[in-house]
Amino acid sequence: VCAATLPDWLTLSLSCLSLPPPPTEDDVDLEALVNDMNSSFESLYSTCSSVQSESVPLLQHNGQVHVHRDHHRSAPMPPHSHTSNSELQHSTTSPKQRRRRSQPMHILAVRRLQEEEQQLRTSSLPAIPNPFPELSGSPVLSPGSLPPCQPSGTYIINIFSEDGMGKVVEIPADMTARDLCQLLVYKSHCVDDNSWALVEHHPLLGLERCLEDHELVVQVQASMTSEGRFLFRKNYAKYEFFRNPLNFFPEHMVAWCQETNGAIPPSQLLQNFLNSSSCPEIQGFLYVKEMGRKSWKKLYVFLRRSGLYFSTKGTSKEPRHLQLLADLEDSNVFTVTTGKKLHSAPTDYEFCIKPNKRTELKELRMLCTEDEQSRTSWMTAFRLFKYGIVLYQNYKIPQQRKTLSHFSTPVRSVSENSLVAMDFSGRIGRVIDNPLEAQSAAMEEGNAWRKRSQRMNILGSPSPLHPCLLNSVIHRTQLWFHGRITREESHRMIHQQGQVDGLFLLRDSQSNPKAFVLTLCHHQKIKHFQILPCEEDGQIFFSLDDGSTKFTDLIQLVEFYQLNRGVLPCKLKHPCTLVAL
């Protein structure tokens, strides 16, 4: 038989096994040749079993099993002598066993052998000496003994105040927004009333949001663009929802999976929002800006724990009519400060959902509401659905934060509960509960202070200022007085610091140079009250109600209305404060 007529696998096997050359006769016994090849395979298999560490079976694409040998370490196979057909038949195995040996090795076995070989190579590598054996207890470093990769080291953060001045702070990688605010309060000598916040601000996009207390500042900075910055300012509305939950969500905005009878108590409302197993839903009409366009559409929108959806068919809630607008997990909600100017928004109450990455303007999901209360409700619901019980834990954490190693921050409160009217006319002071009596005591105290100033001026006061002149300038040292700012600037400051009831500031009047203006927020609406000077017995007084209640200076006026509402819609609770870093 010619060699060209033999199968490919038979020709390759003959060349690999170094079989003796065929006889020179033209008539060759093919059966004897096959039996001789099988006996060679059997001897090869026994040799591979004895030197398993020196050979690795590989499964080829054609299903054959080939054995690669180490020619440097193993001895060559001796050539087989030519024998008779009967001797070959005695030395060969049964046909059943030949079929089993000729089948390809299972792929799992091959993988297992390869993994064992990889482990053998890894174990043969030299061990790395541990430079700090006393810390880990092992003189050699192994992959399992190495600590996991954690953010470490210190980072440089730039913090800016409202006046544009900045401060460079070096912080550790695990510092939260709450801890950084405490550090800035200590360094800036501010009053720590637990209302300071760190704000993520994007001036080119016109976006800003208040960081949650548990967020890591370094991680937030990594997702910001080069033009983004951190601002340090007050935010009284951060946890206002937990104080007055019923003021946020009207009944027509909240839908529940279970039927409810009547109004929901505040405790139940909080529990439903914070419980991850409940399914509250915020619903209502919103203006939605089309992606990549300047046009806006009014759509019926649903906010759920799974995301923000809109209905393609009226107010239908069927799944086939709902489309996803934004995901809550990898996004944050921002207030838009330049809505009408930059995005041609239909109203001034715009907010957006921004992914937690460096994004462009076209990737933002712009939304708009009809009024400020609706915008606050939607943004608060987004935060509750995203963070849940973590927000409540931030609110309930003791106000004394982590004590830093080298200082202790003084904690002071300026809440209305710490301001009470006192009567010290007797031996023992008492608290005045009657508002009318408190008003009378305030008037008497003001008159006594004025008489005392006059007497000091007659006897020779160390102050070069006249009492009337002193009364007109002493208020300029207070944090709630902001001088000659415009009406629009006062609105912007009230908006930025939360728009809660009782948030106030005082400023110079633009229409009357001798008068002042009290700017007060009530029910998310900003109102202005003019403080006019009035003269009596040659002395200058200040009054908010056309002379019915008169005060010698603005400090006394503010302290009185912090205790009594009077002609105002609410008491003065939170001073609108700016800080210089």
Automatic annotation (TrEMBL):
<keyword id="KW-0963">Cytoplasm</keyword>
<keyword id="KW-0732">Signal</keyword>
<dbReference type="InterPro" id="IPR039665">
    <property type="entry name" value="PH_APBB1IP"/>
</dbReference>
<dbReference type="InterPro" id="IPR000980">
    <property type="entry name" value="SH2"/>
</dbReference>
<dbReference type="InterPro" id="IPR039664">
    <property type="entry name" value="GRB/APBB1IP"/>
</dbReference>
<dbReference type="InterPro" id="IPR000159">
    <property type="entry name" value="RA_dom"/>
</dbReference>
<feature type="compositionally biased region" description="Polar residues">
    <location>
        <begin position="81"/>
        <end position="95"/>
    </location>
</feature>
<feature type="domain" description="Ras-associating">
    <location>
        <begin position="153"/>
        <end position="237"/>
    </location>
</feature>
<feature type="signal peptide">
    <location>
        <begin position="1"/>
        <end position="18"/>
    </location>
</feature>
<dbReference type="Pfam" id="PF00017">
    <property type="entry name" value="SH2"/>
</dbReference>
<dbReference type="InterPro" id="IPR001849">
    <property type="entry name" value="PH_domain"/>
</dbReference>
<dbReference type="InterPro" id="IPR015042">
    <property type="entry name" value="BPS-dom"/>
</dbReference>
<dbReference type="GO" id="GO:0008286">
    <property type="term" value="P:insulin receptor signaling pathway"/>
</dbReference>
<dbReference type="InterPro" id="IPR011993">
    <property type="entry name" value="PH-like_dom_sf"/>
</dbReference>
<dbReference type="GO" id="GO:0005158">
    <property type="term" value="F:insulin receptor binding"/>
</dbReference>
<dbReference type="InterPro" id="IPR029071">
    <property type="entry name" value="Ubiquitin-like_domsf"/>
</dbReference>
<feature type="domain" description="PH">
    <location>
        <begin position="279"/>
        <end position="387"/>
    </location>
</feature>
<keyword id="KW-0597">Phosphoprotein</keyword>
<feature type="region of interest" description="Disordered">
    <location>
        <begin position="63"/>
        <end position="103"/>
    </location>
</feature>
<protein>
    <submittedName>
        <fullName>Growth factor receptor-bound protein 10b</fullName>
    </submittedName>
</protein>
<dbReference type="GO" id="GO:0046627">
    <property type="term" value="P:negative regulation of insulin receptor signaling pathway"/>
</dbReference>
<dbReference type="GO" id="GO:0030178">
    <property type="term" value="P:negative regulation of Wnt signaling pathway"/>
</dbReference>
<feature type="domain" description="SH2">
    <location>
        <begin position="480"/>
        <end position="576"/>
    </location>
</feature>
<comment type="similarity">
    <text>Belongs to the GRB7/10/14 family.</text>
</comment>
<dbReference type="GO" id="GO:0005737">
    <property type="term" value="C:cytoplasm"/>
</dbReference>
<dbReference type="InterPro" id="IPR035037">
    <property type="entry name" value="Grb10_SH2"/>
</dbReference>
<keyword id="KW-0727">SH2 domain</keyword>
<dbReference type="Pfam" id="PF00169">
    <property type="entry name" value="PH"/>
</dbReference>
<dbReference type="InterPro" id="IPR036860">
    <property type="entry name" value="SH2_dom_sf"/>
</dbReference>
<dbReference type="Pfam" id="PF21989">
    <property type="entry name" value="RA_2"/>
</dbReference>
<dbReference type="Pfam" id="PF08947">
    <property type="entry name" value="BPS"/>
</dbReference>
